[in-house]
Amino acid sequence: MSYLNYAAISLAVLGVAYGISKIGSHAMDAIARQPEAADKVQAAMLIACGLIEGAGLIGLIFSAPFMKG
Q: Do residues 8 and 63 make contact, with C-beta atoms less than 8 angstroms apart?
């Protein structure tokens, strides 16, 4: 694999990590402001993290055939 392929994979992983970190940060802020809504915020956060992680994995799976060489 060329360095361009490694860069593409790294960008995908970094994008997923950044998205999940932003969700976690904002969820913590929301829980700190309104502790009684912690269960609802946590459920929404876990669903959003799963969707972002799934989108990243699907992107890597679909790009795998183009990474040969």
A: yes
Q: How big is the CA angle at 41 (ends 53 and 59), to the nearest 5 degrees?
A: 10
Q: Measured in whole angstroms, how far is the alpha carbon of residue 43 from the centre of its chain? A: 16
Fold classified for 3-67: F1FO ATP Synthase (1.20.20)
Q: What is the pTM of this model?
A: 0.81
Tracing tokens 């890597």 back to the chain, one arrives at: 60
Kindly give the confidence (pLDDT) of every residue in the chain, 69 residues in length, as a single tens digit, with 9 standing for 90 and above: 678 878 888 888 999 999 999 999 999 999 999 999 999 999 999 999 999 999 989 988 887 777 776
Specify the DSSP class assigned to residue 15: H
